[in-house]
Specification:
It is built from five helices and eleven strands, in the order H-E-H-E-E-E-E-E-E-E-E-E-H-H-E-H. By secondary structure, the chain is of the alpha+beta class.
């Protein structure tokens, strides 16, 4: 029991730190320990990747002498900076149906898990163009899919026809009647004369034949047999990001205004 306790403690410390983890072909029990401890990596809290620094754009020019950054021509490199973020992602399955996965980047993040009962739950967050964080939480079980988010509530109203639509309909049916009368036909497309006689649709024998579904019995391949195995990985990685200084300042101003109530 003491060894098991220290193993769980070591596992939690590893997950809580920035250590990269790569485990494959592990037992369901071992995988479940990683899945259960993944919450220490933020499975219950959505976070954006932390910024680790920034620097001027590295000097690079093409054959025309133009300043380029990752293949993009930059006319005024002094207006930009290269930011760096410590992004993270993780994913694990126990081989019996349970899983967790998630990620965080500079302006978005998501976490999701599936428990032993088959219930899927998760949440995600991202920065909208006007600076406000969009946050959603959801779960799916036997009762269906359920979601809550932080959008302002809107009262739904049944669709109604505007005066312009009513007028357009009236003009359409009036014109239809005039053209049909001029052509010597009944303006009603559902009239009996259109439902009988030459040109009437008759289904073919193949279309009326009763459908019988045939499916070959499933035979598992050699890689699908044997004891269930799980896996888990979690790692951090640097994300360089090109940012326009003026646009960044404006977005930060909007975020300060539009996220006051969060």
């Amino acid at each position: 029991p003491r060894c098991v306790f220290f193993y769980h403690l070591l596992l939690q410390v590893s997950l809580a730190s920035a250590e990269n983890i790569f485990k494959i072909n592990i037992t369901p029990e071992e995988a479940q320990q990683f899945l259960n401890s993944a919450q220490l990596r933020g499975v219950n809290e959505i976070e954006y990747a932390p910024k680790t620094g920034e620097n001027p754009l590295p000097e690079a020019r093409n054959e025309k002498g133009e300043f380029v950054y990752m293949g993009r021509v930059i006319e005024h490199p002094e207006d930009y900076v290269e930011e760096h973020y410590d992004a993270h992602q993780y994913h694990g399955q126990d081989g019996l149906g349970q899983y967790v996965y998630g990620y965080k980047d500079w302006n978005q993040g998501k976490n999701e898990k599936r428990d032993e009962a088959g219930t899927v739950s998760g949440s995600y967050k991202y920065v909208q163009p006007h600076g406000r964080d969009f946050v959603a939480k959801y779960y799916a079980d036997r009762t269906g899919f359920h979601v809550e988010d932080n959008r302002p509530a809107h009262l739904k109203q049944p669709a109604t026809k505007t005066p312009a639509v009513l007028k357009a309909e009236e003009e359409h049916f009036k014109l239809w009647g005039e053209l049909a009368a001029a052509a010597g036909h009944n303006p009603d497309p559902y009239a009996a004369e259109y439902q009988t006689g030459e040109g009437r649709y008759e289904p073919s024998e193949e279309e009326t034949r009763e459908y019988v579904h045939e499916e070959k019995p499933y035979v598992p391949g050699p890689e699908e047999t044997g004891e269930p195995k799980g896996f888990f990985y979690a790692f951090d990685y640097n994300v360089p990001l090109l940012r326009n200084k003026a646009e960044r300042e404006e977005l930060e101003r909007l975020r300060a205004i539009n996220n006051k109530d969060e």
